[in-house]
């Protein structure tokens, strides 16, 4: 840990003195001691923390590990069978070791850079000669950024080194804190953030506000089975916040509906042609092997050269079919040769390379419509797809699960979500059947939005009391057995990605990923490894 913390400090010092990082009025040589003197400087610093947290235009640092987490679930294959899968394979196939973690290494390092930078900013802004309202806004956003980093770290790796002050060379002896302590700090940061952001404007696209803090509080308390708190915070966002469900589910990921009425927090994107501000997600997970001849226009302007990672499973598609859930299925999955939902005229038979696609399916949520493609002279690095990180529907599902455990009306909440996609209400179900339905609604509603791995690790099978992932994965897991006996015409004919997905899962270790071995080595053994690795 010693070298990594030194490098974090070096990066933080560098970033607050680099012309490429912050536009500033020159006052001689700037250092950490004289930088945070104006509201603009504090805002720019805070903006950079948020950008690092929500970064969309860098395919590797955060996007790759977040997609890797999807491919470790029953929702997604690695998908790309035409290129080396080294970044995905260790976690996706449960072959991960501390020395071979693929892309999962990068999120560990990146988040600690951001945490150290947040600590520096919080300390300096507290002493800055700006107004109290400005301090509250920028410090509130910084607290949220630190909390979100720790939220992802604790769910991926368990207890990690916890620190809330900037580190110097005399502080290089951090050991792992317990997961409970990390969660306690996350909650404290989010409550402080919400209080500081109480008077900050809400309608600031891409900026963190108090509702994002309350919504993340709802999520992290749910994950800890603090049912009363999860109900409190989710209900607060639902009943007091300025949000409402989109009337059209497809509109949530619409390139022409950024920061819509349902969105609580979105990673921003832009198609501005002289800067690379677009999202890499549509490229990273776009259909691989598109060809102009497969579009009615026969025009190369309609083609995006997708990389084809993180492709939907037929098991996920079957979950939609079992509910006759046409709207969410077509808004989430496009099967080879099927019209792109909402883009049927210009893309009536979306085709791509089946030789390079494990499942013959792509994620519709990540799709760029043909009209938008045609409007762009530059595509790679310029695709305008915002990425929702927290939205109102999740709050309804959080309240439903909390209500289930506290004797409230869980059915009412899931039926609100079902009504939006024109499904009949569920009635007359209770007990384990109701809990499983809540889990299922979360899967169908939030697929490919970064929660499935965390959910199946934390959700308890009401029959066994064990984490749901244990019933899905491993040699006897229902998802593994489904794939081994599948007759799906796409998945079973492209075996360059193994059909026994999940068979190597072990509940003795794979409820968390390992701590990168490099971090253990650099700490001189102060940091310990997760069990089983």
Q: Please give the oligomerization state of what you see.
A: single chain
User: How far apart lie the N and C ends?
Assistant: 19 Å
Q: Which percent range describes the beta-strand content?
A: under 5%
Mean of pLDDT: 93
Topology readout:
Layout lengths: L1 H14 L23 H16 L4 H13 L4 E2 L11 H4 L11 H23 L5 H26 L21 H18 L13 H14 L3 H14 L22 E5 L13 H4 L26 E2 L1 H9 L3 H7 E3 L25 E3 L6 H5 L12 E5 H15 L3 H11 L10 H16 L5 H7 L9 H5 L5 H7 L32 H6 L11
Antiparallel strand pairs: 1-3, 2-6, 4-5
Helix pairs in contact: 1-5, 2-5, 2-6, 3-5, 5-6, 6-7, 6-8, 7-8, 8-9, 8-14, 9-14, 14-15, 14-16, 15-16
Verbal overview:
- The chain has 533 residues and is mainly alpha-helical.
- It is 44% helix and 4% strand.
- The protein has helices at 2-15, 39-54, 59-71, 89-92, 104-126, 132-157, 179-196, 210-223, 227-240, 281-284, 314-322, 326-332, 370-374, 392-406, 410-420, 431-446, 452-458, 468-472, 478-484, 517-522; strands at 76-77, 263-267, 311-312, 333-335, 361-363, 387-391.
- The strands form 3 sheets. It has a two-stranded antiparallel ribbon with strand order 1-3.
- α14 packs antiparallel against α16.
- Mean pLDDT is 93; it is low at 1-25.
- It holds the Pfam family SusD_RagB.
- Residues 97-222 form the SusD-like N-terminal domain.
- InterPro entries: SusD-like_N, SusD_RagB_dom, TPR-like_helical_dom_sf.
- Belongs to the SusD family.
- This is RagB/SusD family nutrient uptake outer membrane protein.
């Amino acid at each position: 840990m010693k070298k990594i913390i030194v490098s974090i400090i070096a990066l933080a010092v560098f970033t607050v003195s680099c012309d490429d990082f912050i536009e500033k009025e020159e006052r001689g040589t700037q250092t950490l001691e004289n930088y945070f003197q104006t509201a603009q400087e504090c805002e720019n610093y805070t903006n950079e923390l948020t950008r690092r947290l929500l970064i969309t235009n860098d395919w590797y640092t955060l996007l790759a590990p977040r997609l890797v987490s999807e491919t470790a679930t029953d929702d997604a294959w690695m998908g790309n069978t035409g290129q080396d899968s080294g970044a995905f394979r260790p976690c996706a196939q449960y072959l991960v070791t501390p020395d071979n973690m693929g892309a999962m290494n990068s999120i560990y390092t990146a988040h600690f850079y951001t945490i150290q930078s947040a600590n520096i900013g919080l300390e300096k802004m507290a002493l800055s000669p700006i107004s109290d309202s400005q301090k509250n806004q920028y410090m509130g956003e910084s607290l949220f950024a630190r909390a979100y980093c720790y939220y992802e770290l604790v769910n991926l790796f368990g207890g990690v080194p916890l620190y809330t002050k900037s580190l110097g060379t005399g502080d290089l002896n951090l050991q792992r804190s317990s997961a409970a302590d990390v969660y306690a700090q996350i909650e404290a940061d989010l409550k402080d953030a919400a209080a500081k952001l109480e008077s900050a404007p809400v309608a600031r696209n891409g900026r963190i506000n108090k509702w994002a803090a309350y919504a993340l509080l709802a999520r992290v308390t749910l994950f800890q089975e603090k049912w009363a708190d999860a109900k409190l915070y989710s209900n607060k966002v639902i009943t007091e916040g300025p949000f409402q469900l989109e009337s059209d589910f497809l509109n949530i990921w619409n390139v022409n509906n950024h920061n819509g009425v349902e969105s609580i927090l979105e990673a921003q994107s832009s198609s501005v042609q002289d800067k690379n501000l677009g999202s890499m997600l549509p490229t990273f997970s776009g259909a691989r092997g598109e060809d102009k001849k497969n579009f009615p226009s026969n025009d190369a302007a309609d083609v995006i050269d997708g990389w084809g990672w993180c492709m939907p499973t037929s098991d996920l598609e079957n979950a939609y079919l079992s509910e006759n859930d046409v709207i969410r299925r077509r808004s989430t999955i496009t099967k080879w040769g099927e019209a792109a939902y909402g883009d049927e005229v210009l893309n009536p038979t979306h085709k791509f390379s089946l030789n390079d696609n494990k499942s013959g399916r792509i994620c519709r949520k990540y799709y760029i419509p043909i009209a938008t493609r045609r409007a762009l002279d530059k595509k790679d690095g310029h695709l305008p797809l915002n990425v929702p990180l927290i939205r109102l529907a999740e709050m309804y599902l959080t309240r439903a699960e909390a209500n289930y455990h506290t004797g409230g009306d869980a059915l009412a909440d899931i039926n609100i979500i079902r009504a939006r996609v024109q499904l009949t209400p569920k009635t007359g179900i209770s007990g384990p059947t109701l809990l499983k339905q809540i889990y299922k609604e979360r899967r169908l509603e939030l697929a490919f939005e970064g929660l499935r791995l965390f959910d199946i690790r934390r959700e308890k099978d009401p029959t066994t009391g064990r984490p749901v992932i244990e019933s899905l994965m491993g040699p006897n897991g229902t998802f593994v057995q489904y794939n081994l006996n599948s007759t799906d015409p796409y998945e079973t004919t492209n075996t360059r990605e193994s059909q026994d997905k999940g068979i190597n899962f072990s509940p003795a270790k794979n409820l968390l990923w390992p701590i990168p071995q490099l971090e253990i080595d650099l700490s001189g053994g102060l940091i310990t490894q997760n069990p089983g690795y």
